[in-house]
Amino acid sequence: MARPVTGKKPQNLRNTVKMLLSYMGRHQFLLLAVAVLVTVSALANLLGTYMIRPVVNNLADGNIRTLLLGVAVTASIYGTGALSSFGYTQVMVKAAQKVLYDIRKDLFSHMQTLPLKFFDTRKHGDVMSYFTNDMDTISDALNNSFAMVIQSFIQVVGTLVLLFVLNWRLSFLVVVGYAAMFLYIRYSGKRSADYYSRQQKSLGELDGYIEEMVNGQKVVKVFNHEDANLEGFRKKNEALRKAGTGAQSYAATMIPAVVAISYINYAVVAVLGGIMAIRGLTDVGSLASYLVFVRQAALPINQFTQQSNFLLAALAGAERIFEVMDLEPETDEGKAELVNVEEREGRLIPCSRKTGRWAWKKPDGSLVLQRGDVRFRNVDFAYEEGHPVLKDISLYAKPGQKIAFVGSTGAGKTTITNLINRFYDVQGGSVIYDGIDVKGICKDSLRRSLGIVLQDTHLFTGTIADNIRFGKLDATPEEIRQAAKIANADSFIRRLPEGYDTMVTGDGANLSQGQRQLLAIARAAVADPPVLILDEATSSIDTRTEAMIEKGMDRLMEGRTVFVIAHRLSTVRNADAIMVLEQGQIVERGNHDELLEQKGRYYQLYHGMFELS
Q: d(Cα 556, Cα 561) in Å, to the nearest integer?
């Protein structure tokens, strides 16, 4: 669920600016070089304009030698400014990309530490928007605004100083004009900030909606849902249009307003300055230079107002990014670690080499052999407070046992497995793994000891071998082939054009659903874990294929604790124990034959009297 468009101003503007400046501070020498070059460029522009005074006066006096010298000095000043401008633009590009690199790296790194709940409660498109739209706004601001803001500030201050030097009487009128410009910019900028915040949030929602609809195009077409999709898109697009229009309309009035005020200012100063020149209160060169300054006075302010659009959008985008980076990472208070062990003189000893035997190393240094004994003791759990999903669940799975969960959708089957690997933590009771509370086990070690085949198979761009190796990054080609044989995937892989080197693209779009699921099973097999979790692992495999892999699955499950979630009751018949769940509680338990004899809920499900839905 994406965040709602609240339309509020940025709530942490000070923190956002502070965070952004801290990233810029990492590359302070580059940015300092930019600031120096920008300052030189701005001062060159001011001095070049000031040189109009001696040039015009020398022209009026007829002093050709001094005139040519003044022209040469002016050309040198402008040349220095041009070189400085070229230099700071090149350095700024490098600095901006380094800052963006750091933010992207830290954002992606922090996302890896966030709990699964973060991804469950946000649309994928909205998450992607952090890396695309929001990051682009920061990029635009850094590339276009940082140097321009410094330059505009120096030019505004420098222009005011030189105006007072040239004619302090007329300068009071210019100051009034400046004040009017800044008051309007403040008024318009405050309202634009509101809409820029809405715009970034609306853009994230729209991206999330588009991503969801594009991924579900087959379902859309099957159910003729195009018109409803268009209506949903229209509403979100309209929200973005309104926010964008509001942001741009206020921002767009800044430049015309500043220009209009500057024209009025220029006209008044020109008339009064002309009168002063006629009366001998100022020289012609000073007046010429002064009028050019007045004419240019609006330029840095215009530049600043233009950049304010980038700055406001960047602050809105940066706030979204830093809000994510401020989220608390997934907590891991576990201390017990999984280590390789070998037996010497009847004792388990940790060792660095791979032995194939594993043990839990507790904080006190004692070792507990990893066996795959999992027990739930009076477990309560709820995704949202007040809406319990599991109620007082107690069960055990001894090493080597196959435990199956059946029941209606939403009964809590998948939730049980999510508690074993600590995607979520229990609110009541405990989950015990080899005699240790899972909260006391390091999550990395805990999850390394589990092999999971999820209901939604996901393959990554790369070769088939790479996707199987995802379960064990240092797996050898032989281990990969062996895992594929166990999952009965080896035969179809070898028939592919490039075999194990066949590229998988688009989340496995070039493979059938059944083939993708077989690869997911092979990925779990190569990890060689003591505990397997199969969440609808054969849901997309036809009955014939299911029968073919059953022997391989039996070999895979040998000596391991296995949790199976299935809607097909045929896949759980040989389970050591079957748990029937309804509304978050275990209502029946036993093996297949025992449950049929009870003629309860399982009996009704098996004989089709109730559907698993």
A: 10
Nearest to 590 by CA among 576, 573, 607, 569: 576
Q: Given this model, what pLDDT does residue 214 score? A: 72
Dihedral (CA of 345, 351, 354, 356) sign? positive
Q: What is the 3-state secondary structure (H, E, C) of 184-240?
A: HHHHHHHHHHHHHHHHHHHHHHHHHHHHHHHHCHHHHHHCCCHHHHHHHHHHHHHHH
605 Cβ neighbours under 8 A, 6+ residues apart? 406, 569, 580, 612
**pLDDT digits over 259-286, tens only?**
777 778 777 777 877 788 777 777 777 7
**Residue the block writes with tokens 């995937």:** 489
Q: What span, in angstroms and rounded, lies between the C-alpha atoms of 49 and 289?
A: 6
Of 228, 251, 367, nearest to 305 (Cα)? 251
Averaged confidence pLDDT in the chain: 81
37: confidence class by pLDDT, cuts 50, 70, 90 = very high
**pLDDT score, position 106:** 93
**473 three-class SS:** coil
Query: Closest by alpha carbon to 258, among 142, 156, 169?
Result: 156
Q: 14 in helix, strand or coil?
A: helix
* Calpha distance 310→219 (Å, rounded): 40
Find out whether 337 and 310 touch, Cβ atoms under 8 Å.
Answer: no
Tokens 């500030």 sit on residue: 153
CA distance 541 to 567: 13
- Pick 28 or 509 by higher pLDDT: 28
Pairing of strands 347-350, 337-344: antiparallel
- Asked if residue 61 has pLDDT above 50, the reply is yes
CA 531 vs CA 446, 524, 536, 561: distances in Å: 10, 10, 16, 5
The Cα 192–Cα 255 span in angstroms is 14
Find the helix packing angle between 64-113 and 13-25, rounded to 10°: 110
- The answer to whether the beta carbons of residues 198 and 246 sit under 8 Å apart is yes
Q: Looking at the predicted structure, is the pLDDT value of residue 1 above 50?
A: no
Distance in angstroms (rounded) separating the CA atoms of residues 511 and 462? 13
Pair 393, 416: CB distance under 8 Å: yes
Determine the 3-state secondary structure of 381 from DSSP. Answer: strand
| Cβ-contact 140, 20 below 8 angstroms | no
DSSP secondary structure letter of residue 330: P
DSSP 260-306: HHHHHHHHHHHHHHHHHHHTTSS-HHHHHHHHHHHHHHHHHHHHHHH
